[in-house]
Specification:
This protein is of the alpha/beta class and 453 residues long. The chain contains twelve helices and 23 strands. Helix 1 packs parallel to helix 12 and helix 3 packs across helix 4. It comes from Panstrongylus lignarius.
């Protein structure tokens, strides 16, 4: 058995095989270490997570694994906390923030109902539904002043940016409204891991046979015409792996970048179309460390633009356009002098093209604009670049509104093995796993774990 990809799905598959007594397998990981989109890095006095950050909820097989390994921290984190600030530093009242949060949550909750109705009842996208329903809400706000209405639109814009990051899409018009109710949460808590997230990878690796995971093994082709032959470049030559079964756990971004010649013969059209129908976007994190916590009693800094509709203040340079994908700067548990900047949409890709020094300057300008005070430059910066990573090509998946293809159960199709005839019997030759293929928990680490398992 050959497993392509040593992320959580691939390691979970290997773990399950080991438990069942199947030890004749190899996990081939293209990167220098296993873990996929789990990436813990030393930063300042501790660790930060450039990839997966939390265990989302306690109602999952993955939570049970981590809990049984005693890796869970008692610290539970939250997102979008702290002061909501306008350009110039004015703080938005908490009562207005709470009201707008309830409005958005109510709209998105009603959007979930479309999954239980015939598809033609659903609007074309989550973005369309949010915009229409929000305008309908504003029509009930006759007594609001022009400034209050402007604030509500600014907060609505913040929630759009938050949802773009949360769903790893480029805009909410790409997000399928019908499938919005298909995703199921495993709980509202964001559990942290003791020390760092990579410990989970280490515990999975410890369960596997020695030398069963090979890193820096980039697979260049798969011949499954008879027996399966997997080729990987090795020291200017090709290393060959022969197998009866192949489990492919690469990200959707990588699979969709495979040349047509990668699989010989080609994959059946239903699988090719299925993978191409899945959305796969990018979000990035920027960690900034300072000599001291200049934000004092603020529990975070959220940015509410007055100049919405993708407009930037005239003094902004063109290469600062990426900052319109930023929701704000969160505190980081255990690192009191570190801020975490979240950026999504096209901004997440644009920022990868800039050097660290420029990104740090842009973050300083952004914080200065919204706090109204002089902000010191960070002493250190560390950031993710998931779109540029050719072994990942993005962050995680979302359910994309793509016409007819969205009408099929893509998850069920792609989780069905591709069978071949051998000695008069049907054999599952190629199988797929990964977060994008989970019907209800796509985009999550626990979804990846369960499909691999």
């Amino acid at each position: 058995i050959v497993i392509i990809g040593g992320g959580v799905a691939g390691l979970a598959a290997a773990y399950k095989l080991t438990q069942a007594g199947f030890l004749d397998f190899r996990v081939l990981e293209a990167q220098s270490v296993a873990g996929g989109r789990i990436s813990s890095s030393v930063f300042g006095e501790g660790f930060v997570e450039l990839g997966a950050q939390w265990i989302h909820g306690s109602n999952s097989m993955f939570y049970e694994f981590v809990h049984n390994k005693r890796l869970l921290s008692s610290v539970i984190s939250s997102e979008g906390e702290g002061h909501y600030l306008r350009e110039g530093g004015a703080r938005i009242p908490n009562v207005l923030i709470s009201e707008m949060k309830e409005v958005i949550e109510d709209i998105l909750s009603r959007c979930e109902d479309f999954y239980r109705k015939p598809r033609n009842y659903a609007p074309s996208s989550v973005g369309e539904y949010l915009s229409v329903e929000f305008e309908r809400y504003l029509q009930t706000c006759d007594n609001d002043s022009p400034d209050t209405l402007r604030l509500k639109r600014g907060l609505f814009d913040w929630h759009l940016r938050f949802q773009i990051i949360d769903n790893s899409c480029y805009n909410l018009e790409e997000l399928c409204a019908f499938d919005w109710g298909r995703f199921q949460s495993c709980g509202s808590e964001n559990f942290n891991i003791h020390h760092n997230y990579f410990q989970i990878v280490e515990r999975l690796l410890a369960e596997l046979p020695n030398k069963s995971v090979e890193c820096k093994r980039l697979v260049c082709s798969v011949d499954w015409n008879n027996n399966i032959r997997v080729l990987s470049p090795c020291n200017a030559a090709l290393h060959q792996y022969l197998a009866e079964h192949l489990i492919v756990t690469c990200s959707v971004g990588v699979i969709n970048a495979f040349p047509l010649s990668f699989f010989s013969p080609h994959l059946p059209d239903a699988y090719v179309k299925g993978f191409r129908s899945i959305g796969f976007g990018t979000i990035n994190k920027i960690f900034l460390r300072y000599e001291e916590a200049w934000w004092k009693d603020m529990k975070g800094i959220q940015l509410v633009w007055d100049s919405i509709k993708d407009k930037l203040p005239v003094e902004y340079e063109l290469d600062m356009a990426w900052t319109r994908g930023v929701t704000g700067f969160d505190l980081v548990a255990g690192l009191p002098t570190v801020l975490l900047c979240w950026v999504g949409g096209i901004g997440a890709e644009l920022v990868e093209q800039l050097p660290d020094k420029i990104v740090a300057e842009h973050c300083t300008a952004l914080l200065t604009l919204f706090t109204g005070i002089t902000i010191p430059h960070p002493t250190e910066i560390l950031r993710s670049k998931w779109n540029s990573n050719k072994q990942v090509r993005g962050s995680y998946s979302y359910s994309r509104a793509v016409g007819d293809q969205a009408k099929t159960n893509v998850s069920a199709q792609l989780l069905t093995p591709i069978y071949t005839e051998k000695n008069g019997r049907k054999v599952p030759s190629i199988l797929f796993a990964g977060e994008a293929l989970h019907e209800k928990h796509y985009s999550t680490v626990h979804g990846a774990f369960e499909t691999g398992f």
